[in-house]
TrEMBL record, chains A, B, C, D, E, F, G, H, I, J, K, L:
PANTHER family named among the record's database cross-references: CALCIUM DODECIN
SUPFAM superfamilies per UniProt: Dodecin-like
Protein name: Dodecin family protein
InterPro entries cross-referenced by the UniProt entry: Dodecin (IPR009923), Dodecin-like (IPR025543), Dodecin-like_sf (IPR036694)
Gene3D superfamilies the UniProt entry points to: Flavin-binding protein dodecin
């Protein structure tokens, strides 16, 4: 038997979508033990003065619960 | 870089949907620091004796994580 | 054991969305016994001459079946 | 034969969701002729200091095209 | 007024889907007070050597928040 | 030519999801003639004191209309 | 104030999808007063011996309720 | 590099769904240059006196933007 | 016990949507034995010079597997 | 690097949904090498004479491709 | 009060998905004033001779309307 | 007339999402003739020891059928 939780994380980067995914996983792993993966739910950009200011990724992060 | 979490809150009011949204934001802000917004996911009413007994709103509440 | 039916009701009001929900619950309760609640499925407005003429709400109304 | 267009409008109010719907219909009717209605697509709130700062509604606005 | 939270739990059993639901509710109730119900979001199986190795259920678990 | 109706039924059992499906089909067949099948739309459990109190299934039941 | 119901009808024709829509509206209008429209929800064909045997359309039929 | 826009058009015909699609494409091509295609989003009928009064199709029309 | 597979087929016709459905069923039946039906998933048109050049239908085709 | 395919299987049992899942996995494993799991997409029952005649499950079956 | 419009843009690049997003934002900003962001709706590739010929991104671009 | 099939491929890379798309297209083109494109359905990461171990992309790959 394994029981895991899934929580939504939103991460923002000024470089790229994949950097945002990395930032979100890094930050989640500082607080949550046993992170096993994430499913990308949404991708957005903010625009300022006609060019992309930031990349935002919302993801569903899974982590295993201790018994 | 900003990392936020998104969590689902269900709030119930006997007055109106907007009062339910307010109650949910109030309650969430007591426990969670850095609440920035909420997206309304579902609206329901319960009915008793032919008239509305309560208004329920489920919403996805975002709050920024400290570093 | 409890068995309920769920039926879609569309109600229109010239006042507000919540008045439309109330009108729909009132009308449904005149015909159906045992209404227990409703889930809001859609909200629409009709517009005439640049301002809102009516508020329409579609909702899934639940009512318990007698044995 | 009737041909209409449907365009997404996002309107923000500091009072209520219904005020936001009204603001959006008002603004759309200033630019677009023949607005006939709108379908509510999303409802959001922004939160500041633990209470609601604004109500945002995204809606699909329909308007009839002249021949 | 009642305010509840809804969180996603993923539970795995080598017996059946309903055993997975039971395991997930058991585990959630050890950590969370006031669990009132769960909505089944996804059902999956893993397969090994041509037969089912485990049953996984993802569910949205609701629990009431204390004031 | 065949014309059928599809109606949503919600059935609750304290034993299992499949018992709930059976209860719902039994109850629907008492009122509706010509039931041909059902599509499972939602599965939920209610929880009381940390264990499952009831299994609820919402299903779309089809039945053929007489000419 | 107007209150309408919306019910799902499934109609089958051996000619075409549009004939199926017509059959379903005809049959619904025999039983239900005040049918105002229908929204096409699903289109299916059955195949027998490599060619189409029937066209099936599921539609959400709206009809106004008398006061 | 190619950049296109996608806009929603709703077209109504008293003959058939395909006539409605044709009417919508004709009307869109009068105003928009470079229409390349359309995706059917919704199909509806209005009913009057028990038979179909009009066929409505909502479609997402794509057209290429000039540089 | 019956086991079937469901596969997505995309068929294009310069005549109509129903001709596209027929072409797709014909072609699928040449390769696959035991085709029993299809569910229409998407309908699209391509446009050239302001009028419809082709009708495309994506459908989920079911066929029974031999033992 | 791993590449897998995902294919939809529909399986029918006269016993239960879980027996249908088992039948489908058994049958898929006879033809496809490297089946790793399945995601339950739909659950249906057929009804005859007022009681359940068969349980049908549609599932998305994954299997690893050889290099 | 702020009112914005949201319009769908489809952009194609032969380099990468993120280049396509950039091209689309650049092109949109040439025509539309006040672009504030975009939500990624779809990602596609076209393939020619066994390798990727272009990356296409459909996105919902928001821009603020002047009063 | 053109008839195509659409099949779901899941590809995994330890470098990036775009490398996973490329790997999947490469592998699909080895087995399937006439691949014309792919639509990205899902993006996931697996995490190990707090950082991303692999990037997984599920995509719907289209390929033209020979007559």
């Amino acid at each position: 038997m394994t029981v895991a939780r899934v929580t939504e994380i939103s991460a923002t980067s000024d470089k790229s979508f994949e950097d945002a995914v990395n930032q979100g996983i890094d930050r989640a792993s500082k607080t949550l033990r046993g992170v096993t993966g994430a499913w990308i739910k949404e991708q957005k950009v903010t625009v300022s003065g006609g060019s992309i200011a930031s990349y935002q990724v919302n993801m569903m992060v899974s982590f295993v619960l201790d018994d």
